[in-house]
Hints:
Structural class: alpha+beta
Amino acid sequence: xxxxxxxxxxxxxxxxxxxxxxxxxxxxxxxYVNPFIGAADNGxxxxxxxxxxxxxxxxxxxxxxxxxxxxxxxxxxxxIWGFTQTHLNGTGCMDLGDILVMxxxxxxxxxxxxxxxxxxxxxxxxxxxxxxxxLTQPDVRAELTASTRAALHRYTFNKADSASLLIDxxxxxxxxxxxxxxxxxxxxTAWEDEYTLTGMIRNAxxxxxxxxxxxxxxxxxxxxxxxxxxPGERGQxxxxxxxxxxxxxxxxxxxxxxxxxxxxxxxxxxEIGHWxxxxxxxxxxxxxxxxxxxxxxxxxxxxxxxxxxAYYHTIIQPNIISDIDGKVRTAADSVVxxxxxxxxxxxxxxxxxxxAHPFYTLMTPEKVDPFVNSLVTQSEVQGFLPIWALWGGETxxxxxxxAVAVIAEAYRKGxxxxxxxxAFEAVKRTxxxxxxxxxxxxxxxxxxxxxxxxxxxxxxxxxxxxxYDDYAAADMASLLGRTDDEKIFRERADYYKNLFDVQTxxxxxxxxxxxxxxPFDPSGVSHAESTGGDYTEGNAWQYTWHVQHDVPxxxxxxxxxxxxxxxLDSVFTTTLVTxxxxxxxxxxxxxxxxxxxxxxxxxxxxxxxxxxxxELVREVFDRFYRPEPDGLSxxxxxxxxxxxxxxxxxxxxxxxxxxxxxxxxxxQMPEFIxxxxxxxxFEIKAEGLSANAKYVExxxxxxxxxxxxxLSHSDITAGGKLxxxxxxxxxxxxxxxx
Length: 738
């Protein structure tokens, strides 16, 4: 594949052109997106306005303290604190939530938390690029829209005995009340004129963050009050007042930058240099449609809502954090020119390497090279590839280092818009040079696993996930002809075998003397970063299958397909009782609400029992993806849960993303058209699909019988037609050739 560069609008034109020859008609795809899906329970999504991969996500705040408020919004809440300009989508940790603003009327009291307002759900609406709600107490209609690096707010004051705006620069989501009041380390602001406020904030919740902003109003500020801060607070809370009459509108636009106030000003002037709210909203609508229209779907309204909302959630991030001129602040706190003028962050790699990044390689390929360049650039500053990158810094969250897999996958799939040798050096350094926060390669290579008595936590999970990254490094080394490196990493990729206990049939913690840790409870769930244990947000039932790169080898450890399948069956029939917040969406011990389980259903296909894959995919669709605020079974995790849905809906899934092959499952919707790069088109049909006809009887690819359990990435990107013939007769399920 050559280096891909094109505008998003090209895809709109492709889709429209296709309509002249196909039965598809032009569609306003955002009409099928419901941003409230996942905003209840533990989905941790937000309903506010943003652009695809944008820096800004302006959204309402209904709470900010505790795990429940990672996105600052819970659908069932009835009070809004205000509106902040940046948010994380579906994460299990919290940060951002920058620059809270809240319109208010009436007496301007000194208590900073006195301006929260109730609201009626019937007044709340959200669609990609737009959010609106009526605030009861001030009787203000609040509307939000956004460009890539700036937000535009419109507040209509229905009663204007007075009109003011709270600007809270102390605010940000936090784990505790104490952290909420102590997260800001520096805050500097200046009124440049009666319309313009600029500033810099440095804070620390999850990552050390420095941002600069410019805020402009369409009306002159007539008066300001600085509210008294609580002990330990270093931020500012300002009330700015305006001379307004009932029915008047106050507009505010705010842009952010990592580099400086001049960067924020340039971002604002280039993206929203006017006060036309409807123009920005329409531009947002067009941009979202240009992405969503790359896949055309046939199905029920409910199915389309699930699918296009999943698409929407998947491409909210990674987020561009470089300025319009290409400059960005690095993790070393220096301002540099981003490679190619684009630098992205918000890489939830432990989650997203599994399906979200494979989705990007298919449907947003123009982003893949910039993503890789961003990862490599950050690695050269901090000494290793990002683990969980946010705002250009490192959070050190989760295990393994799956930027390795993302880079190797991109190279295997033919992306060459980055320096491969430079990227591999980052991969090699990451996998061989220890750093105190997350890696101890000397212990790993000495024992061939992470011994539980020498590893503070997550010994089993860390071993298994590191093996996958070693495999990814070996694959990239092989393509580059680096045979010595390939040999080392291939040997390390087999370390998973050292933790398999033949007697119990589980991946089990092992001591440094080679004995098994005892007692051993395979159902014991660990959230190792907070509670200790040998597994990461899971247990032995879930992690035993974490050998994505060598399923035949794993089958061999069990003694063949029959005992492998017997053990796999027990995963779905053995009850798990847990209150662990990340282990949800249960079918027996299978936990769809968390990522280590995501590929497990597809192992049935690879072990010769595809009918069971088909049954379980359908069960997951019916139970764990509903077009409702509480319709997700776990955190959306920066689009990974959503990407699983889209791949599985189309009938295949990247069990091993680096291989550039997808394992075939069973499609859940009747027809898809993928509009790909270079004008190619890939069609997927599920003939005879119904509630009962959930089994695949046969498959053709470009009119020829397809009997392999795999579909290659190149089969899709070249364009063509994949047809599944469905049946309700389980005995007729396809038999794949080995």
